[in-house]
Specification:
Blueprint: E1 2-7, H1 14-28, E2 33-39, E3 47-49, H2 53-65, H3 67-77
Parallel strand pairs: 1-2
Antiparallel strand pairs: 2-3
Length: 84
């Protein structure tokens, strides 16, 4: 299960709401990934995302686990003259 926690920094109760959400999930034994989406105060269409510690680990692993494929692609395209 994934829960999107939307907030904007100027909201005085967002730290309390975040803590309450985590407390309720823990009390009920609910395993959920909480994604924090910070809304921009200047433009409500913009949301800033933060990776969870697990997300950080998965992102780092994706770079190292795909190294062989990236190297193979690099070699396959090395002979091409690419113009930017």
């Amino acid at each position: 299960m994934r829960i999107d926690f939307l907030f904007w920094r100027e909201c005085p109760s967002h730290p309390e709401a975040r803590a309450l959400l985590r407390e309720v999930l823990e009390e009920r034994g609910v395993e959920a990934e909480v994604v924090e989406r910070e809304r921009s105060s200047d433009d409500g269409r913009i949301a800033l995302l933060r990776l969870t510690p697990e997300g950080e680990q998965r992102l780092a692993k994706s770079f190292t686990s795909n190294a062989a494929e990236r190297n193979a692609l690099r070699q396959a395209f090395a002979h091409l003259d690419i113009v930017a």
